[in-house]
Every structure is written in structure tokens, then in C-alpha cells.
Amino acid sequence: MMRNPRALRQRGEMADRKLWFVHFAQWVSHVTGHPIDFMLAVTSIVLWGLTGPLFGYSDTWQLVINTATTIITFLMVFVIQNTQNRDIAAMHIKIDELMTQKAHNVLLDLEEVDDATLEQLRQDYGRLACKAKSRTSTPARAEAVPAKPGKTKSGKKPGDD
Fold first, then answer.
1. Distance (Å, whole) CA 21 – CA 135
2. Average pLDDT score over residue span 74-100
3. Contact 76, 83 (CB under 8 A)
């Protein structure tokens, strides 16, 4: 099967463009997740508060902190969400692997692989789950599990009120 070299190059370039954000998000999460960074933020707020009398608590003085915190918060939401999405996807794949009772060491660093690889692994385990469901008569939902003999679904014995 012949592949278009231009299409492959473009796909590689797009993957590289996405990969920079993954690396950036991981770096920002790592750097900003330390207690010293929290203390730096608190110190900045205290210093800003102490400069209030120098600027007469003006609207511009207030606008500086409001604008800075809004921009930082807005950008951090996307960085944190990207990091959490990747960590959650990796954790689900690891749990799925443990449930198959034959864990592979290759899955130990899933947080570092690209999104396409994570999605491929998730689909692979999804297919395994479908195969397992087709071979068992165990209900997929807890509501479908029959109650124990002598008990109703509420957990009480018949006649207990």
C-alpha cells in the first residue's frame, strides 16, 4: 500500500504541534505544583496589597491584580485540564490492564506517550471488554443483579417494616 509522503509529513507536523503543548502543559504542571510557587503567589498578593497606599487604592492599582489573576487563571485552566485528561486516560488503561490479570511493564509510563497512542490503547481495551461481555452472562448494571433469596431490592426481608 503506497502512502502519500506529503500527507505523512503533514500528519507528523501536526503531531509535533500538538506535542509541544503536551510537553508545555506537563512542564507547567510540574513547575507550578510546588509549595514554593504557592508561597511566591501569596507573597505577590501581599506585596500588591502593601502597595495600595502608595497608589491611593486607585482603579488602576486594582485593575493590575484583577487583569493578571484573570489571565493566569484562564490559561492555567487549559493546562491543568490537558494534564488531568492525560493522567486519567493513562490511569484507566492501567486499571484495565490490571483487570486482565496480565499487566505489561510497557504501560508503566503511559503519562508520557502521545494522545493518539493513549486513544489506540483505550480502543484496544474497549474491544477486550466487549469480548469479555459477550462471553459472560453477568449483568452489566448493578440494578440487573437479582436480590439475594429472602430479601427485596431495598435489602429488607419480606414482612419487615
1. 41
2. 86
3. no
